[in-house]
Amino acid sequence: MKRRTAILLSLAYLFVPRLLVAQEAAPIDPAHIYGERCAACHGQDRLGGQGPALIPEALVRLRREAAVRVIGKGRAATQMMGFEDQLSGRQIEALAGYIYSPLAKPPKWSVADIEASRVLGPPAPELAVPTFQADPLNLFVVVEAGDHHVTILDGDRFEPIHRFQSRFALHGGPKFTRDGRFVFFASRDGWVTKFDLWTLRTVAEARAGLNTRNIALSADGRHVAVANYLPHTLVVLAAQDLAVEKVFDVADRKGVGSRVSAVYQAPTRASFIAALKDVPEIWEISTDPNAPAVYSSLVHSHEKGAEEALPSAQGLFALRRIEVDDPLDDFFFDPRYRHLLGSSRDGKRTVVVNLNVGRAIAHIDIPGLPHLGSGISWVMTEGERKGHRVVAMPHLREGKISIVDMTEWTLIKHVATPGPGFFLRSHEGSRFAWADVMLGASKDQILILDKETLEVSRTLTPWAGKTAAHVEFDRYGKHALVSVWENPGAIVVYDAASFAEVKRIPMAKPSGKYNVHNKITFSEGTSH
């Protein structure tokens, strides 16, 4: 009997490895796994629901190896559970591959879809002051990408007032109403959120697209424009309740479709300006109900009241197309919004477009892919260029900051840096501009650039070995806040004059922080 049992056990041990190997080698159906484990939150069509869309266009900021970790272990402080106790390593890898595979058909997101997604919170009450004790114009809105939260920070005491969970992967450019009370956010998977900074509550949400680049708020505070990669649309929502006002299917005159790289408010022009990624056009969309007619063909006479042409559009949301030589998907505007600097993805030169006449007037050779969206400008007060306005911009491919004279549209100087950078920031009250070099080996450094000598005068290291990025000043220009772009990370507060550290506030990968006053006054030291 004992011998028989031993033989049976030996046979069992012999077959177990083979069974395990066979099980491990069995074909995996990731679509089936997705339907069982993921569809309830992320949608059967992978276009999102409670959770974000799981398609390549919506996952550009999440690396595949990070997706594997999230599937296995879940995501802290969210409803995303981990599946490592239910799925094998091979199944998790296959599932990650599945969500990064393109859909069979280009997805659509209609007006009806946008309206069906819209959720309204309690109406915002009439208030004279916020419900908390702090200067409402010196608040910072901090986007924490590490765990998808937003922190409202008191810019005088540098103490958090409130923290709430955001949509997945917020874009780093919230927009504020003129009085500073309401802020609008956009997430990469298309959700637009209106938040009341005085009551610290969400007012409304709507999903305007499936892969969204950014948003802009009109100068009169009535309209929110949403730039989409997917579908190829530019959506205009009512700022009051995020109801759909207009959807533009984005294509050039020949019908060639395009993604929208970004949309910007042009306050002095009462319009939105849109950058198109795939076609050589710039779009200007009027937010003035009384906007004059736009003509898409030749006009024999421009004499007022006697124009000899047929207008293609006029009034609210009238579309004007400005044709350029190449697609331009990164912009910088002069303070009067008369001129636009644009760069293309080949990164070889910058084009100056006069928006009034609607054509390019200059080209500046600046190789290295200048990041115009992070450019800043100021008026020189010393030296031979005294009185000239200049613009400075970091580069995404090369270690340098380029400085251009905006009076003559000529390159003044390349300032060498230890590596490529993403952000450049300053304030009207400061002599210095602060630049990161987060895309290079010296990612833990912040460079202090003297705006008069155009030389780097100092280097700071907020946290050795960790990425330092995105500086923002308080409303007075007295303090500069630097993000340690890691999780765990921090916001490091510096005295902007002495460069001494004032305070360190723990955060979860604070990808950006935005001062209410600087944003609503269009401070020349920050992005708009």
What do these coordinates show?
This protein is mainly β and 528 residues long. It has a five-stranded antiparallel beta sheet with strand order 1-8-7-6-5. Strands 4-3-2-35 form a four-stranded antiparallel beta sheet. Helix 2 (30-37) crosses helix 5 (89-99) and helix 4 crosses helix 5. The chain is globular. The N and C termini lie far apart (84 Å). The model is unreliable at 5-16, 19-23, 298-302 and 306-310 (pLDDT under 50).
What integer is the average pLDDT? 90
CA radius of gyration is 26 Å
Query: Helical element count?
Result: 7
Q: Any idea what the shape is?
A: globular
Distance between the termini: 84 Å
The residue ranges in which pLDDT falls below 50 over 5 or more consecutive positions are 5-16, 19-23, 298-302, 306-310
Strand order of the largest sheet: 1-8-7-6-5
Q: Kindly name the structural category.
A: mainly beta
Oligomer: single chain
β-strand percent reads 35-45%
Total beta-strand segments:
35
- Fraction of residues in helix: 10-25%
The main pleated sheet reads as: 5 strands, antiparallel
